[in-house]
Amino acid sequence: MTNEIARPFDVALLFGKHRVDLHRFLKSRGFADDAAADVSQEAFLRLLTSPQTDGIRNKKAYLFRIAANLGVDIQRKQAREGRVESLDEGRFEIADESPSVERMLISRQELAILSKAFDEVPHGPQSVFLARLEGLTFAEIERRQGVPLKTAYSQVMKVTLFLKSRLDDAREIPLPLSEKQQV
């Protein structure tokens, strides 16, 4: 067996055994959850791509040293850039927070599907569902619309499940006939 075949297996084994401890170690050094996860993954990647891992007796210690060094590098870089927020805040600037054109198109399509499906719901459950969407409690719906509490709850649940099933059906991509036969 060559080292190239064994090394990924060793790193995978090391990952399974120590990823939680490594994450905890990085959090103890001031990293937020997301940043600790990123640094952990980078440490494992560096270990995996390291050309000389055969002579390392304690790979766990080596992995933690890589992670500690990466953490120091990140902190130094932030200090050079004059960043004042701490690593705990875990803020990363996003250039544009508005949804993509694709996301907006998908949302419009989903809204059209829900609107069409909602038109199929009988008037009584529709009005109970809309009242709930407006923020009324089930007790308020009972008082205003004269619908028993359990019935109002049941109708909201049924309408919600109906709309969800319609949306789920629309999201499914049917397999071509040749692929269905293989499954």
TrEMBL record:
Q: Where is the RNA polymerase sigma-70 region domain?
A: 14-80
> What GO MF terms are annotated?
sigma factor activity
Gene Ontology annotations of biological process type? DNA-templated transcription initiation
Keywords for the protein's UniProt record, in alphabetical order: Sigma factor, Transcription, Transcription regulation
Q: Which InterPro entries match?
A: RNA_pol_sigma-70-like, RNA_pol_sigma-70_dom, RNA_pol_sigma70_r2, RNA_pol_sigma_r2, RNA_pol_sigma_r3/r4-like, WH-like_DNA-bd_sf
Q: Which family does it belong to?
A: Belongs to the sigma-70 factor family. ECF subfamily.
Q: Name the chain's protein.
A: ECF RNA polymerase sigma factor SigE
Q: Which gene encodes it?
A: sigE
